[in-house]
Design a protein that fits this description.
Distance between the termini: 17 Å
Strand content: 15-25%
Order of helices and strands: EHEHEHEHEH
Low-confidence stretches: 123-134
Largest sheet: 5 strands, parallel
Strand order of the largest sheet: 2-1-3-4-5
Helix content: 40-55%
Shape: globular
Number of helices: 5
Radius of gyration: 13 Å
Length: about 130
């Protein structure tokens, strides 16, 4: 499973990349929503981890763009997991309204990341199919 990690902060991107590697996954990275959207169009990742606040296009716009692409092309929804430093309930609500599936608060703990990846990762019977719920 090759996860797309999206964050404009080099340190955050490095930490998440290391955590993903420790959990046994491969990854691609993107530095903003526009970069991530281009990469998600070129290669359909089974899961997207995205920061919410980024320049050019933020995580909210990325989620809306991915959901529109899926709807236009009759594609199964890819799980999109928000990663935000904002722990307020309004931020989580905004994430879900934009089409994201789950929400992690920075700094992301390895155990929490592992739980989210287990919940939203591909099913064992079809490793290429995104899993909804869990």
């Amino acid at each position: 499973m090759r996860i797309l990690i999206v964050d404009d902060n080099d340190l955050n991107l490095s930490v998440l990349s290391q955590q993903i590697t420790l959990l046994g996954y491969d990854y691609d990275t993107a530095v903003n929503g526009n970069d991530a959207y281009a990469k998600s169009k070129a290669h359909r990742h089974p899961l997207v981890l995205t920061d919410c606040q980024m320049p050019e296009a933020d995580g909210f716009q990325l989620a809306r763009s991915i959901r529109a692409l899926e709807a236009q092309n009759d594609l199964a929804p890819v799980p999109i997991i928000a990663i935000s430093a904002n722990a307020l309930a309004d931020e989580a609500k905004r994430c879900f309204q934009s089409g994201m599936d789950d929400y992690l608060i920075k700094p992301v703990k390895l155990k929490e990341l592992k739980t989210v990846l287990a919940k939203w990762g591909p099913r064992r019977d079809n490793p290429k199919a995104p899993q909804k719920g869990g």
